[in-house]
Amino acid sequence: MELHRAAPMFVRSRRPVTECAQCGEHLFSPEWSEHVDARRVRHLWECEACGYAFETTIRIAAA
After folding, report:
1. DSSP readout, the chain?
2. Which residues contact 51 (CB under 8 A, 6 or more apart)?
3. Of 5, 7, 15, 54, which is most buried with the most CB atoms under 10 A?
4. Nearest 10 degrees: CA dihedral of 7, 27, 29, 39?
């Protein structure tokens, strides 16, 4: 009987991973978030690897 090692499984996150706009490092949570209005949330990201900071805005579709 021959045993084979199973290939490692990679689990995909349900939420997208944000990458640093400068160095490409994965960022998992923003430094802070701001509720702009009923349909927008702004996030401030800061990369621990290179120190680069940037903002993203999430737009929520109307119901």
Report:
1. ----PPPPP-PPPSSPPEE-TTT--EE-S-SEEEEEETTEEEEEEE-TTT--EEEEEEEPPP-
2. none
3. 54
4. -110
Encode pLDDT of 6-62 as tens digits: 555 555 556 678 899 899 999 989 999 999 999 999 999 999 999 999 999 999 888
pTM: predicted TM-score of the whole model, two decimal places: 0.66
| Residue 27 neighbours by CB distance under 10 Å | 20
